[in-house]
Structures are given as structure tokens and as C-alpha cells.
Design a protein that fits this description.
The protein contains five helices and no strands. The chain is mostly helical.
Length: 166
């Protein structure tokens, strides 16, 4: 339970860092093409929102493990859908040659969260199949992974915003 309280507080704090990063940098909306910074900000917000909401739902007393597993699956599916919807326009612009293609950054921002959500679903499915204790260990690992991704994305928004203004 303490882990989820700390995770919720940390996610809320990182959302604050994300808002600071967005406001310090250049505008996210640019006419004519998809701005990768906007996609990074949206993707990061989704990652942190999933961690925040799941943490709060896991804190609720007398929550069954089955309920937690089902909520984890729903949250992971929502996270994947939002990640793909966020990065769809960026990929179209990348393939059209309007945006510099940075494979490592794109993989980290898109594939990283999708892989983390897949791990979350795997743990939830295993829990539903009767393997005790899998959900909490898996969820803890996934939360830490999502925090690393969210913190890195927020940092990149800050650094890119500072260098873009110069």
C-alpha cells in the first residue's frame, strides 16, 4: 500500500514537471506539420496519468486482486491506444520526410511505454490465471519503468525547449 501512495505522489509531481517543461519551451503547436515535442508531452502525460490512476485505485481498501488485474488490463489498453494515436501523425510526417528521423528517441517514446503496458497486462493475466503475487511485483516493476520513461521525456522537453529558444 505504501508503494502505491508514493507512486501516486511521484506521478503527480512528475506531471508538474511536465507542465513546467511545456511552458518553458517553445510553443508545441506549429502550423503545417506535426510537432514531435507535442507528441512527447502527450505521451508522457498518458504514462504518468496511467501510473497515477492505477496507484489511486490500488490504494482503495478491500480491493480484490481480480479487480486490480482487470483495472490494470483496462489501463494498459487505454495507454497503448493513446500512445499509438499520439504518435500516428508523427510517424506519417517522418515517412513523408518532414521531420528528422531519430530512431532511438522514437523507439524510447513509443515502444517503451507499449512494452511496459504489455508487461502490465502479462502480470494481470497471470494473476487472473491463479498465480499469486505476480500482479504486485509486475506492477511495481512497470511503474518504475514508466517513471523512468516519463522522467526522461520531461527532461528532454526541458533540454530541447532550452536549446530551441537559443
Amino acid at each position: 500500500m505504501t508503494f502505491y501512495v508514493v507512486a501516486a505522489g511521484t506521478a503527480a509531481t512528475l506531471v508538474g514537471l511536465l507542465f513546467v517543461a511545456v511552458h518553458i519551451g517553445p510553443p508545441l503547436a506549429t502550423p503545417g506539420r506535426t510537432n514531435p515535442r507535442h507528441a512527447i508531452a502527450r505521451s508522457t502525460f498518458t504514462v504518468l496519468a496511467v501510473v497515477f490512476v492505477l496507484s489511486l485505485l490500488y490504494i482503495v481498501p478491500q480491493t480484490s486482486v481480480r479487480f486490480r488485474a482487470m483495472i490494470s488490463i483496462v489501463a494498459a489498453v487505454i495507454g497503448v491506444v493513446r500512445s499509438v494515436r499520439t504518435w500516428g501523425p508523427v510517424w506519417r510526417d517522418k515517412f513523408a520526410g518532414r521531420i528528422e528521423f531519430r530512431l532511438w528517441q522514437t523507439a524510447w517514446i513509443l515502444v517503451g511505454p507499449v512494452a511496459a503496458y504489455a508487461l502490465l497486462v502479462l502480470g494481470a493475466v497471470r494473476q487472473l490465471a491463479g498465480h499469486g503475487g505476480v500482479l504486485d511485483v509486475n506492477t511495481g516493476f512497470v511503474f518504475i519503468l514508466l517513471f523512468v520513461i516519463g522522467l526522461r521525456n520531461s527532461w528532454n522537453l526541458l533540454v530541447e525547449g532550452a536549446t530551441s529558444e537559443k
